[in-house]
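Supplementary Text 2. Reproducibility record for the structural model of the 254-residue chain.

All settings were left at their defaults, and a single model was retained for analysis rather than an ensemble. We include the record here because the model underlies the residue-level annotations in Supplementary Table 4.
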Amino acid sequence: MRKLISLIFCISLFFTLASVAQSEEQSTFQSASEAFFNKNYDQAIQLYESIVDKKIQSSELYFNLGNCFFQKKEWGKTILNYERALLLTPNDTSILQNLSLAKGETVDEIAVLPNFFLARWWTQIRNLTHSGIWSLLGILLFWLGIGGIILWILGKERNQRKQGFLGGMITLGLSLLIFALAYNSYQIQQKSGSAIIMSKETSLKSLPDEISSEILPLHEGTKVKITEKITSWYKVRLDNGEVGWITESALEEI
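Retained model, structure tokens:
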């Protein structure tokens, strides 16, 4: 009996502490928003980043943080936070519009090579929503498929069993595709594989070495794709297909 009472007490304490922590974070978020509207951008940034430091991810949080840096014209951090917001809510109109404005303030003009059409379609479909919604849809389709298979096994009429089999197999196949989209979306959210140049200016090097030749200069706010890391150097690929090395201190992963 005492063990049961202790267990109930621990569970109650856990949820109480979680509720208090959530209340504190909401209060901090509200204070940060008020500081932003009062144009106290440094204070707003400090408060928003205190929430980020607690490993809390929120599209609204990153979007508001990006807006603060936008007002300070710190384009690297602006674009970094907008990109992080997009990972959580792909195709959000407000984020895309602000991101486009911020990119318009950057120095580098890098042409974007078109992706292979299948990869482009996959990305467009994946970005229709976030991983949680894809997962729920996959679970729903999976159980509908199971229902079709049960109908195929237990159905009394041949036509009914045929429809159950076809419907069940098609729905199960679709559920696997949806689960693949959910998994890919989750992986991208956890580690996007991309980064933003944070230095005012840095060099894209031919080798991971300071004395190697410079391919071209890159500036704050440019997005790169990380393909490899050696010690304190990242091998990156630009949107135009150019490949080179950048020192770790010059960029920050999305």
